[in-house]
Queue: 2 jobs
Job 1
Amino acid sequence: MAGPEQGLETALVALRDALTVVRLPLELPGSAEQRISAADLVKQLDDYVLPRLATIDAPLLAVVGGSTGAGKSTLVNSLVGRRVSAPGVIRPTTRAPVLVHHAADAHWFTGSRVLPGLARSTGATTDTRSLQLVADDGIPPGLAILDAPDIDSVVADNRKLAAQLLAAADLWLFVTSAARYADAVPWDFLLSAADRSAAVAVVLDRIPPRAMTEVPAHLGRLMGDRGLGGSPLFAVPETDVDTEGLLPVAAIQPIRAWLARLAADQASRAAVVHQTLDGAIAAIVRRGPDVAVAVDEQRATLDRLRADADQSYAEAVRTVAVQTEDGTLLRGEVLARWQEFVGTGEFFRALEQRIGRLRDRITSMFRGEPPGTGDLKVAVSSGLEALLRNEADAAAERAEASWLANSAGRQLLDRSAQDLGRAAPDFGDQAARAIRDWQGAVLDLVADTGMAKRSRARFMALGVNGVGVALMIVVFAQTGGITGAEVGIAGGTTVVAQRVLEAVFGDQAVRRLATIAKEELDSRVSALMSSELLRYHRLLDEAAGDPEVADRVRAAVAAVQRELSGSATASTESTTSSTRGPTALPGSRPALEPPTLRQVPYEVSDDVVDAELVEEPDGPPPGGWR
Ligand SMILES: Nc1nc2c(ncn2[C@@H]2O[C@H](COP(=O)(O)OP(=O)(O)OP(=O)(O)O)[C@@H](O)[C@H]2O)c(=O)[nH]1
Ligand SMILES: [Mg+2]
């Protein structure tokens, strides 16, 4: 294969590869349908389009499909002239497909060229994953007939397999009966064939003599109304089967003759192949973008859920950032321990009154590590930890509530083994570690800065811990905001801490240290909340899949379309030499030239009188394939 066909094959392989990685894990409106569609398209490409494109000269594969008991196996046996597939009275009978071909064509089917998912077998089998190959010279070279399981019995495997087999057909030989020709399921199949312009011939079986005029005509009208006007319709009257279960030759002769003519002539075979192949490619091109849209919808939904969760945790980080600098933490335990730390209430009041003498008083108060530093650090830790837990729980609750508000969010939450509506079970440990680390960093910070200062003596007097906790207190009250009865006392608290630090470092340095200490705290809080948020992200990531896939599907579809329009130009330029006929344009291949259905007046005689098809003048003589 050269030129445009090769480009088309490459583009279709790319489309196939892109469709293979499509995942639609969320149940959104329409996603079940697109999930099936993506899988169908891959199958259709693997089972039919790609192998057919690669071996355009392979025999024409006619798949005999239809309802259980319609007489498919009987028809196949009768066409071949011997029993190759067991017919039966038990429904459904055929479980594994049987493919009959001329011995010379065996090599086309023994490999995995078509239906690569089915193992080849040479004997009768009931294994639905295998394809029984029968070589019989009762079939002309260039034609293969496949007896498929039914499309509508209670056996789900049969229905699935039949759909797969029909999708792999060059030609559908669709069997229905006079009693069942208006059933819904067969029509669904016929409509899908019409939708993808597959070559279809309908065999209307077991028509009672008195209905020979009316019923085929009615079915013909139904077909015409549903886009199958160009498809041949073969009317087979009710007859007795012989001891082998075969129909009389006369009853099936028109079908046999028509198939023989298709098989014998390379051009008409190619026309059928191209009608189905081009129809299949056109349908794939039509359906591919819908799959990409479904992928986009999943992505957009996941993005929205991600934004909701992110926002909730960003709010937690913001709240903690505010509450660790507006004085909120300087209450209860922290306040009480601070008061103990700087001295009695009395001393504290004295400080408030005479703030100017603070430095001397403080420095003379503390000798070495002041008592109560440890308690204060603990109080700061537990105050911070309580704040963090509150906000982590609140963030989890908000994120969960926003996810619960829509179905996709609920689906993801259902997949989580954890309760995501509250902080993670190990949050307490993580928070305690983060706080410990922060306190350590603050102490390192004051130690590094303090040792370099001239006022080293004061620093030594307070100790690293003393200066460190004072810095924490300053951080917690940077923006003020304390109200009510605590104002005086807490306000004083901060001032004391501030003065202590200024006495050691000077006021420029205090501002810088407080800023650094606050940044250290904020970044730890942010990391802590991120690891909480990660629980939500993990669920999203598990559902996300390949981010490029929708674009890859679209790009591949566009490439296929480009190839098709390229080959349209090519075949327009060389219409006369094309085997596809004078109007051989992709997407508008010539329909089969169907024999027109003609009713032969029915006469009761010992011979079967059937609806006969008008044959070309050089049509085959009755009774044989040629
Ligand atoms: N008298 C008569 N019997 C028929 C005719 N066609 C089929 N039968 C019988 O109807 C029954 C079902 O036929 P099968 O050929 O097994 O039907 P099928 O469509 O292959 O059915 P599944 O394999 O179940 O999908 C068998 O007993 C056949 O002998 C016919 O034209 N005339
Ligand atoms: Mg059967």
Note: The longest strand covers residues 199-207.
Job 2
Amino acid sequence: MSFERPMHLDFPLAAEKDEIRLLKLRPGTWDEPLQCQFWIVEISQKPDYVALSYVWGDATHSYCIQVDGRPLGVTENLYSALQRLRAHAHDREIVLWIDAICIYQGSISERNRQVAMMGRIYAHCREVWIWLGQMSSPEASDLRWSTNASESDRICYKFHGDESDYDEKWSEYQSAFPATERAGNNPSIAGEPTREVSSSEIVFHCAWILRLLAAGKHLNEIRPFSGGDTAVSEYLGRVLRSMEDLVNNEWFSRLWVVQEAVLAPSARVFFDFVSFPLRVIEDAKTLHAHTRARCCVPLGTQQLYFSEAIKNITGGFAEISQMQNESPTPNSSRTLFQL
Ligand SMILES: [Zn+2]
């Protein structure tokens, strides 16, 4: 494969124009090969695309996608991102800009030109999708726990950050807990889950905790804190470990990728099979206000660790909104991309 003519050369970018390659990802079921096509556009013509922000991870190109019928090696992290994004899109085609694929890495001159355009590429996309990766626990992607959702819903839970989030996925979350007081949007139900909670379900519960914090709920209105019991809980420990997966994500430690989110008009965060508008995670920092007001600060050791984890997650994203508020322009950011 390495002796073949690189497919990028069949889709050349004109050096004198602001051309980029976009990747059209075709719909498909979970196990089907990832089928894509290149599409060359000029940024000035305002093409509609989503830019992906992620870390390359292990540089071994041990996974394969199809681009215009030919195999292209990608890293495991990128492969899992594409597989998950395709599932999120259901039966729609998605148009992506992804640095590792859309830039021909074998050409230094093309790379230099494209890297110089990256500020504009992110500023002109419809949205940036931040891929934080799969949860690290081996069972985290075991999607079999959900029996009452369609196949696509089992693979993806999309949060919108508004009232429409309180739909079947809210019922599904609530179904893990005691049935009393289970009414409307009121999450003030005491206690621990009443049934076995799988690893992937824990990820989903983390998502709901962030979502409820973003909605301004007090910690004592959110399970598993609402029981008022500060004893060490196995369930809370598992929630905490998943939160730590998020906090310790390599994405946050890379100025390069964080910068991409700052430039984009809007951003959505994907972790494992859950996605959020970036604003929801930013809004979850209301936890700080509760800590200051001491209205609902939990006292148990695990709860305190949990508060720290949430602070670190929201703190990472708060830096992004702060940078956004400082109104960077694509030009001023260019130097950052050239570091
Ligand atoms: Zn409070």
Note: The pocket of zinc ion is lined by residues 218-219, 290, 295-296 (CB under 6 Å).
